[in-house]
Amino acid sequence: MINKIVKSAAEAVKDIHDGAIIMISGFGEAGSPLELIHALIDQGAKDLTIVSNNTGSGNVGLAALIEHKRVKKMICSFPRTANSTVFPELYNAGEIELELVPQGTLAERIRSGGAGVPAFYTPASVNTPLAEGKESRIFDGIEYVLERSIKADFSLVKCEQADRYGNLTYHATARNFGPIMCTAAKKAIIQAKKVVEAGRIDPEVVVTPGIFVERIVEVTNPVNESDLVAQKLKYPW
Amino acid sequence: MINKIVKSAAEAVKDIHDGAIIMISGFGEAGSPLELIHALIDQGAKDLTIVSNNTGSGNVGLAALIEHKRVKKMICSFPRTANSTVFPELYNAGEIELELVPQGTLAERIRSGGAGVPAFYTPASVNTPLAEGKESRIFDGIEYVLERSIKADFSLVKCEQADRYGNLTYHATARNFGPIMCTAAKKAIIQAKKVVEAGRIDPEVVVTPGIFVERIVEVTNPVNESDLVAQKLKYPW
Amino acid sequence: MVENQTKIGWSKAEMAQKVALDIPDGSYVNLGIGMPEMVADFVPEGRELIYQTENGLLGMGPVPEAGKEDLELVNAGKKPVTTIPGASFFHHADSFTMIRGGHIDVCVLGAMQVSADGDLANWSTGAANAIPAVGGAMDLVAGVKRIFVITQHNTKDGKAKLVKQCSFPLTGKGVVETIYSNLAIIDVKEEGLFVREMGPNVDFEYLKERTEAEIFR
Amino acid sequence: MVENQTKIGWSKAEMAQKVALDIPDGSYVNLGIGMPEMVADFVPEGRELIYQTENGLLGMGPVPEAGKEDLELVNAGKKPVTTIPGASFFHHADSFTMIRGGHIDVCVLGAMQVSADGDLANWSTGAANAIPAVGGAMDLVAGVKRIFVITQHNTKDGKAKLVKQCSFPLTGKGVVETIYSNLAIIDVKEEGLFVREMGPNVDFEYLKERTEAEIFR
């Protein structure tokens, strides 16, 4: 019987290796899989390349992973947010690399990685510094840049409901990068607010079909990043 | 107040012009918008380029549109099916053009058309006659062909539920090309089995967000293509 | 600042109102973070606009009542929002299909600089120790049909924001349609920047003095 | 045909069974139209395979009872099917994300010709008046991890289907992993075609006579 549910976040992230490329879902705290990230901090993998829209807040979640010097390089669209201090400090100290990518290009590069499309053309960033060094080409009188897809070894994704096959639904704007990150990773690792019986999720409303998912851990009451940041908590606590 | 609902299929297709590029949803009869196609036959537009996976069955729907010599060119992946005789006859008589496209490439060309991506690379068709004359390129040791996106003037799409904003849901495998065809057309014209109040479709389960839809007609009891074909009916009847 | 003595030009609310008046009924609209968000408060009675936020929501409603916030229902500025009946959620690739694919009618953005050719710079000063952050701005200006800029006419220290050539790194080239500043509404045309309307107690000479780019009327 | 006298080689059901035995538990599988569909009937007890059909369903179940067909719930052959608990529907671009993106473990296809290098021809004879039709075959062979071919060893008029070079237009080059014919199971390796198992009353000489491509054991 196919059963992708595992018992703990620690078990879910156990095979992440040093040097892995990891996609992490979330737009700010919405959709950020904090429990999986914390388990990854405990697990110890380092020299990671992280693909995520932001760089985390305060000293928890992705920011804590960065603070613990596990991250060699960030690929993201918006590395500074209201409460992000960890990344800016390390970046200005030259201790972490940054590949800055327009948000839509980031999404499309991830989606292409999952879809077997190695490269595509986009109009975004033409005539800007972010297109420097990239091939460009004119189609029907408009200039586009060639962008390569991104694939990951692992994705860490937060979702709402999951079943043993790996079918997922999401909640509101926490959906953001989750579905495409599941497709672009060799192994997509999920934290679900609720695990349900197979068949409970209507086939019409499944957002991520199970084929894209490797394993799932149920985290019934996930922490809120903003609460932890407001309390100035640091992980590990 | 935004209200995309119109009263009849005739009104829905009234502005389709001669020479238009039209995408038509459906995989065989599943998802084929027969009532809209029949209204288009009545309306009279000609010299059409049709993008659709198949070429219709019997003498109704897409097959009837072709039989009435309204179609200059078909872009499709599988132009012959069990009961398709109209297209093969015209094709062998040299009276209709065919651009044969692998099914996944067809889907991705349509999706790219909707997504503002003018061209992308795919491994499908490499080293086959369908890649002849196309640019190819090697990424990471694997050869890919460059494929251009397809955009349409109109899409004719069958769906299950719709609201006045144009939010759509689909039924089972009738979903097929509908959602991507809505994105790739200047005007997506929809026949919905049921029009519901705005807000009745859960925001989490909308498949086609309303932004991609131009107008909708409710067709409560659509005909079944296979029934019509079994009865050897011809449109117009 | 002169504004504290006699009222010269428009307030932020008035600027937002001017933008709102120029957005046709039924438009799909993306509002940038900050001042652009105010535009939603001034949509004229009888018009229905649909707001898209690039983090995955079409049909964004107003800010929720205190205590009813959902931390996973936020806008591009990561602030809690609500949904209207008829809203939909989608993932980022689908969201940028809307944006890049030309499905959004109007985007209202802030600016650091706008050039005489409609070039926009709004993401980075290019300073050596600044943390660069771009978000969806480059995709928006490349894909949305009409780009409106809402901005103070000058920087806090009095520098021109409407310049001959942007000195800051570009967001996009030749993308701006209209600039709504506190001093004037200015259309970017083939032949240059054309003043359509000036704010209270602003005259053309006053405006010219505060504008590095050539302006016409 | 020889098969009518003494039983030589495997029946279609036996061929399908041989294929089914080689598909690991938990695999995601796409079955081509026709003989490949039979594979689903022979999955060994205790194994769970998930079937994908490229027209937009993961978790395809068996044929429905008579009278319970839904004309809009069909497989790639356009025949009515059902769903298992845990199924999902999706559009064509998402479906081919699964296929092209390498997410499907095994695809079982029919063949007109397979070459010594594992080239597959299964979509067109290239004849002048034939209506060419390709469907999803080229995407499947380009994207699915393992391509199994199930086919009669020879054509109805006794021609070889396992050839030195395909004379028919290719579906894909070097894509086939294993050929399941009525006479033998043959693995495509770097060094050529290797016979893994022969059917009842088939010996290597008999097989060689009926195979244009060089075969090894």
Which percent bin holds the helix content of chain C? 10-25%
**Which fold name is given in CATH as the topology of chain C?**
Glutaconate Coenzyme A-transferase
Q: State the CATH class of chain A.
A: Alpha Beta
CATH architecture of chain A: 3-Layer(aba) Sandwich
Largest two-chain interface: B-D, 50 and 40 residues
Note the total helix count of chain C.
4
Name given to the CATH architecture of chain C = 3-Layer(aba) Sandwich
Keywords, please?
heterotetramer; A: 237 residues; alpha/beta; Glutaconate Coenzyme A-transferase; 9-stranded mixed sheet; 3-stranded antiparallel sheet; 7 helices; 12 strands; 27% strand; globular; C: 217 residues; 3-stranded mixed sheet
Description:
The complex is a heterotetramer, with two copies of chain A (237 residues) and two copies of chain C (217 residues). Chain A is α/β, with parallel strands linked by helices and 237 residues long. In chain A, strands 1, 2, 3, 4, 5, 9, 10, 11 and 12 form a nine-stranded mixed β-sheet that branches. A three-stranded antiparallel β-sheet of chain A has the order 6-8-7. Chain A is globular and about 55 Å long. The mean pLDDT of chain A is 97. Chain A has a single domain (9-120, 150-228), classed as Glutaconate Coenzyme A-transferase, CATH 3.40.1080. Chain A is built from seven helices and twelve strands. The longest helix of chain A has 13 residues, at 103-115. In chain A, helix 2 (34-43) packs parallel to helix 3 (61-67) and helix 5 (103-115) packs across helix 6 (178-184). In chain A, strand 4 (71-76), helix 4 (86-92) and strand 5 (97-100) form a beta-alpha-beta unit. Chain A has helices at residues 9-12, 34-43, 61-67, 86-92, 103-115, 178-184, 225-230; strands at residues 5-6, 21-24, 48-51, 71-76, 97-100, 119-122, 136-139, 142-148, 152-162, 168-169, 185-195, 215-218. Chain C has helices at residues 12-21, 92-100, 137-143, 204-209, and strands at 28-31, 50-53, 57-61, 82-89, 106-109, 113-115, 120-121, 146-151, 162-163, 176-181, 184-189, 192-198, 215-216. In chain C, the strands form two sheets. A ten-stranded mixed β-sheet of chain C has the order 4-3-2-1-5-8-10-11-12-13, with helices on both faces. In chain C, strands 7-6-9 form a three-stranded mixed β-sheet, with no helix packed on it. In chain C, a hairpin with a 2-residue loop joins strand 10 (176-181) and strand 11 (184-189). The mean pLDDT of chain C is 96. The B-C interface holds B 1-2, 111, 113-117, 163-165, 167, 183, 197-199, 201, 203-204, 206, 209-212 and C 26, 28, 48, 50, 52, 57-59, 83-90, 93-94, 96-104, 142-143.
